[in-house]
Design brief:
Blueprint lengths: L3 H10 L1 H7 L4 H24 L4 E6 L5 H9 L4 E8 L14 E5 L15 E7 L8 H11 E12 L1 H9 L14 H10 L6 E9 L5 H6 L7 H7 L2 E8 L4
Parallel strand pairs: 1-2, 1-4, 2-3, 4-5
Antiparallel strand pairs: 5-7, 6-7
Helix pairs in contact: 2-3, 3-4
């Protein structure tokens, strides 16, 4: 198993991108599964919240691969999509045909984020929220940017997965300062004064097969639902901004 430090060296040397594109690598397989799950969550949010002409923001979009895949899979429904990150390896290319652009922003410090109030209706934080050092301020920015009826989608490894990852030195403790559970998120919303401003649309834990072979063979689909809820490796939640807020 590669450590974070080794992954960071690979990233600086240009090998990180190749790993992300290789479905059979640990990193690439994880990205594939998270991308598919995100597409599914967005489709569910569209249906449950009657969204149309999506204006998407992806916080911490890394190399942009996941946002690009999302824009492609929902091409006819996307009015605009923007990805924010530090981009240490340089900005990904904007794609006019997909109405997709990328902007370099330090999401930990650059407040307010460079988006107007009530202008976007799908905000995504995929494996990002747990890294944010000021989750209350981040939630406040999400509420400011979201138009009424819009959704915030959070997708992360479950807390126990992150903690085990830290012990195994796969994750760095100092960069995972906001390990959240559903209960912890409810506390954060209350502390930020936003608990009544958001409605929970859906929460879900999901199973991830241990490797590419199990996924391709479809074995993860036969895991009983009660086991998924107990030992699911990842968690997701869709929150909708109350209309009139």
């Amino acid at each position: 198993m590669r450590t974070v430090d080794k992954l960071w060296v690979d990233k600086l040397m240009g090998g990180y991108g190749a790993l992300r594109q290789d479905e059979k690598s640990i990193l690439g397989y994880g990205l594939l599964r998270r991308t598919l799950q995100l597409q599914k969550l967005v489709a569910q949010a569209i249906k449950l919240c009657n969204l149309s002409r999506m204006r998407i923001v992806d916080f911490g979009c890394s190399d942009g691969a996941m946002l690009k895949s999302l824009a492609e899979s929902h091409h006819g429904e996307v009015e605009a999509a923007v990805g924010f990150d530090k981009f240490p390896n340089g900005l990904p290319e904007n794609e006019r045909a997909l109405r997709l652009r990328f902007e370099k922003v330090d999401l930990y410090r650059a407040y307010p984020y460079p988006l107007a109030d009530n202008t976007h209706n799908v905000l995504i934080a995929s494996s990002f929220f747990k890294h944010h050092p000021d989750p209350l301020r981040f939630l406040g920015e999400c509420h400011r940017i979201l138009e009424p009826g819009g959704v915030l989608i959070l997708l992360e490894p479950c807390p126990w997965v992150v903690r085990i990852g830290i012990r195994l030195k796969y994750f760095r403790k100092e960069s995972n300062r906001n390990i959240w559970s559903y209960r912890r998120l409810a506390t954060l919303l209350r502390e930020s004064g936003l608990r009544g401003e958001f409605t929970e649309v859906m929460r879900q834990k999901y199973w991830v097969a241990p490797n590419h072979f199990f996924y391709k063979a479809g074995l993860e689909r036969v895991v009983p639902s009660f086991l998924v809820e107990r030992i699911g490796l990842h968690q997701s939640i869709i929150l909708a901004k109350q209309r009139g807020c």
